[in-house]
Amino acid sequence: MYAFDIARPTTLDEAKAAIAAGGQALSGGQTLIPTLKARLAMPETLVSLHGIADLKGVSTDSAGRICVKGATVHRAVAEAVADSFPALSYLASRIGDPAVRNRGTIGGSVANNDPSACYPAAVLGCGATICTDRREIAADDYFQGMFTTALEEDEIVTEVKFPVPQAAAYEKFIQPASRFPLVAVFVARFADGVRVAITGASESGVFRWSAAEDALSANFAPDALDGLSVDADGMIGDLHGSKDYRAHLCGVMAKRAVARAV
Amino acid sequence: MPKDSGIGASSKRREDIRFLTGTGKYTDDINIHGQLYVHFLRADVAHAKLNGVDTAEAAAMPGVVRIFTGADFEAVGSIPCGWQITDRHGQPMQEPRHPVLAHGKIRHVGEPVAAVVAETRAQARDAAEAIVLDYDELPAVVDMKAAVAEGATKVHDELTSNLCYDWGFVEENKAATDAAFAAAAHVTTLELVNNRLVANPMEPRVAVGEYDRADDMHTLHTTSQNPHVIRLLMGAFVLGIPEHKLRVVAPDVGGGFGTKIFHYQEEAFCTFAAKALNRPVKWTSTRSEAFMSDAHGRDHVSKIQLALDADNNFTAIRTETYANMGAYLSTFAPSVPTWLHGTLMAGNYKTPLVYVNVKAVFTNTVPVDAYRGAGRPEATYQLERVIDMAARELGVDPVALRRQNYITQFPYATPVAVEYDTGDYNATMDKLTEIADFAGFEARRKESEARGKLRGLGVNSYIEACGIAPSNLVGQLGARAGLYDAATVRVNATGSISVMVGAHSHGQGHETSFPQVISEMIGIPEDQIDIVHGDTSKIPFGMGTYGSRSLAVCGSAMVRAAEKVINKAKRIAAHLLEASEGDIELKDGTFSVAGTDKSVAWGDVTLAAYVPHNYPLTDIEPGLEETAFYDPANFTYPAGAYACEVELDPETGHVKIERFSAADDFGNVINPMIVSGQVHGGIAQGIGQALLENCAYDADGQLISASYMDYAMPRADDLPFYSVDHSCQTPCTHNPLGVKGCGEAGAIGSPPSVVNAVIDAIQSGGMNVAHIDMPLTPHRVWAAMHAARTDAA
Ligand SMILES: Cc1cc2nc3c(=O)[nH]c(=O)nc-3n(C[C@H](O)[C@H](O)[C@H](O)COP(=O)(O)OP(=O)(O)OC[C@H]3O[C@@H](n4cnc5c(N)ncnc54)[C@H](O)[C@@H]3O)c2cc1C
Question: Which of B160, B329, B520, B757 could bridge to B456 as Cys pair (CB 3.0-4.6 Å)?
Fold first, then answer.
């Protein structure tokens, strides 16, 4: 780790100012701190979002959306939505280990957009809205490939608003070492159709499986996916799984998610 | 009624009070006034010609005291190898120089190239980034078979090739073995990989070097399993420090698993630099450094063949193994694929002919050396996999095939040079049959199948050679050290006892189990006895802890020393009781005269020894302290039978271990709870190897599983609750405690049964898969099933 200064703002405005002045947001630190320890980044100032009360908490808005503030830790989400949105609760409860869930936050996760992160599957699978210190971004416009998002350099994720599906489930097949998803699928059925988002699998990060969405919108049952497959081209191939294996798992996990959701 | 103290009692581990409350004192807890910190700049390429190391800019950076490079160590010895192998043609192995810091050439990712010593750790690390290496990259030698092919790039230019040795064992058996294969009714052939592992002790390595100019005394505090071995190797061979001027201290050590046996460059560096700079120098490995500098384990590529006659009797075994040495010879590396592997290739079976060929190969990878089990897991895995495969090919029950070929008469001289003193392999298999509930398996399989899953049962036997080792024998085999051990029993004036032992406890619970033995012998409470270990200035010259040797070898030395103490105490008691020595009995801490009510307590006798007012000073020296060195007459041979039951998800290839059972024969057991714990830990590592762990290099010699993001360690939920049993006990015939050793059994005995179980599950699903190489990750299992399904279609 290189030496750095730390700012501890208590309001969003203070944080914005510190970040605009060249600071980098530090939320749960579960991704950023290991990066710093490996000396892979050299920020001069870290701006901790931890002390900003306005960035924490889970509520429901007038449209019935579940609104998770940017610096809310995974464990708090898992507990808050256990009844109102069990699939999201389950997802949050399976991220990392207790230490990670007690520190890591939704804002950090969606800002980082690791191609194997869990939250992006729910955000894209629900068609959620990412709110920042300056605008609102639809999930379909937000995720732009591995570690790439629509965020500007100094933009802060303040909240994520999830429309609550009629039925939903998250199926995670873990990479044995990191226990991030090797492939994970979020399936959500809304009145106007089904959305299927897959994380862990693709070289371009989280993506929607449109063929599966069409089939499931017509018939929300596991065997609606029979015969459908994801193209192995563009899948991640590494020590833990070939492109073919990941493509295969997309189908298996999607079916299992549907089976659990119905 | 189970005993509540002494031999056979499950006394609670007294050391756990400090380990579980964070009050252990580890090497990193040692901080000495004025200490400096070293950061090693490590190679990030696997193979390169090193033209120069430019330290000018770095040396001027804040806090930097001095930067060392390979040139500073030209006059210093090579990191020594402790074992010399003689090849099939009578030639010594090729033994390259192993420098403290790379000089002229870089040979593996992680090799230390420069050492920055600074006032703080961060300053040392900052300065290391300013060092400029001038090198020309060379093609990396990674694949072992390619490494020994004609024209391969050489890891060491001064050697004739990358072949360290080509070893045949027993060479005289070769022709007869080949003839037996020619005459066999059935031959089963299996090619397999024993995957490379990273030991991953919880505590990374640490070294603190100290130098006292006033009396020219060096002290090295280090994370070692054997401080005397380090003192000998580093003092005599690397730095030329006489032993009375070198103290090596290994305090609490957070796990070793073999990788802390060896003498490493960082230890030599800190000792050397402490004198050069006249200030203490400390190094604490990061986890990332540990991945690329702790000696790795296993990494064999083998072909094994089993010949059977028409009645399914084993007639011969033939193996050919390529064993990866890495870039340099680590301390015991050459012995692992040879004497710790070839000698076990007969297993539990009366196969009359065995021939083992091993080619040890240099590659541009981290050195490979002993890891829990060392050679014996590799032997067991080959043998127990090929037997299972033969049973499947022949359509016979794998357990029956094993039983039919078990050795049942002891002592038994194997065709691979060792003599098993005792054992009862059918008894452990009987016990296993019961605890693993073989009878209920079919019902459990049906239940799994009803849920769309496949279930498999895998079984294996194992035998290992522990209690290493008779010194004269290992000397003939190339060991450059004796392998006895030593203990001093120091009785204090009021009767309490300190035992100074050569063994080192780094998780094994010696502080609890060793006193149990003394308590049993004398009849005083365990809490009156402490052991002292890990400091060459306090303990006699012992060889340390590895190879499940502590109790069998050092424990035997302790018993011998205690016997001497008791004999002397009886003479003192005879004087105090005015009786003849032959009539004195010691029981429950009291000496009495046989057939009378005259007695004197242990504490009164020990007090007399130190306050010798009424004492036969002309006949007996005062004091009560004795030392014994014990050199074993043979290895010990723990053996047993293991079973694994898995449930396999045919859609994903995910394997879940549902049951794991181990029936071991460790001879006599001092503390059953500690023994169970040792087996539990060993099985966790064996399952880790079988399902999860894989140290992988790419073709350029880059370590691609260099952190826990990619190197999968077993976690609690990867493991089932085990059924372990060690009630089958055939005591060792040649050591005073009748003990065999239990530290490695779990890691040796478990991988084959896991793989056998997965193959059984897959075949039960109608897929023709004969073998999958470890680790059996979901991806590999799925790929094998997928290929079999595609072939069938
Ligand atoms: C052992 C371990 C296991 C894990 N397992 C999983 C898993 O299974 N699934 C999974 O999804 N994740 C996993 N993670 C990652 C974890 O969920 C992280 O918490 C998450 O990815 C990052 O969130 P954070 O709050 O820790 O962000 P930080 O590490 O603090 O920040 C990450 C990045 O986001 C930026 N950032 C942070 N907050 C904001 C914000 N509000 N607005 C804009 N930018 C911001 C930071 O500047 C930084 O670049 C694991 C992590 C660890 C250490």
Answer: B757
